[in-house]
Amino acid sequence: MKALFITLLFALSLPLGLYSAEDLHVVSLDAAVAGHAEDGGVISELAGNFGITWPTLIAQMVNFCIVAIVLYKFAVKPIVATLDERQQKIADGLQYAEEMKAQLAAAERERAEKIKEAAVDAQRILNESREQSKEMIEQKTQEAAAQAEAIIRKASEATEQERKKMLTEVRQEVARLVVATSSKVLSRDLSDTEKSTFSESAAKELASAGN
Amino acid sequence: MKRDKKITQLAKKLVELSKDDNGAVTEAKVSEVLAGLKQVKHRHHLTVLKSYLGYLRREVALQTAVVATPSALSDAALKEIEANYTKLYGRPISAVTNQDTSLIAGVRVRVGDDVYDASVSGRLQRLAENVH
Predict the structure, then answer these.
(1) Total of domains in chain A
(2) Fewer CB atoms < 10 Å away: N or C end of chain B?
(3) What pLDDT, in 10s, does the model give residues A143-181?
(4) A25 CB-near residues (< 8 Å, 6+ apart)
(5) Which domain holds residue A62?
């Protein structure tokens, strides 16, 4: 970067030098014509043809050096520093962007892994839930069947007990009616003689029971 | 408590004294016992008499066969019953008749707390119970 600016400064200063040299050339052309006629040297002739005079050239060179130094000191150097700083910042930014990009990719991968793990976990939980619900449904079904069976059994038992109770009541009632009817019939139809005979027989039966 | 026990023992002894040689409670023996009690004049005379009466009734009931029948029984049958239960219980038992038409026919004998039923109504009742 620094070399680029120095080259640029030289390139910019060249037209200025040429412009100064052209002014000098107009001035020195007349003098050169006069000098050529006087000295007749090759170098002098060339210098005269190009309008170069040594004091002017030296002064231009000194001037140029001063300008170059000043420019380098107060313009190029801060600009270069600024450019370096900006370049550093850009590099840092790019590096940061690369890091961020890598982190983003890593985060993206991590997110994808997490999503994948979450999906696997969700699938596992879903399967477990399905298994549990299936087992629970089977268990509840069995319990319901057992309860229904118990209810039916109890109902059957209750019905059977009720039937037995009714049968017992009917038997008791029938027996009571039979006894009552028999008693009435026997009381009415048995004669006193028959009753006495039966009583005597029963007394003998009781008398012989203990023997 | 102790007094009641002594009175009970006395009443039981009086009941034993009221029996004749055969072990049967007779009116004559009871009269003798009562006469003796009048002479002794026990301090708890009334209580002793009540207790004596209770045990005497129980003893009489144990020695009596109440024969319930709808019609009169012959003396021979009663004698047979007396002989049978005297032999069965090992103590003299006399039979008394009690007319009960609800029996229809047959007899029912009660000795103390024991009941021997050979009546028609009793048989019908047992038949009804067996039908259940």
Answers:
(1) 1
(2) N
(3) 999 999 999 999 999 999 999 999 888 888 888 888 888
(4) A50, A51
(5) 2-107
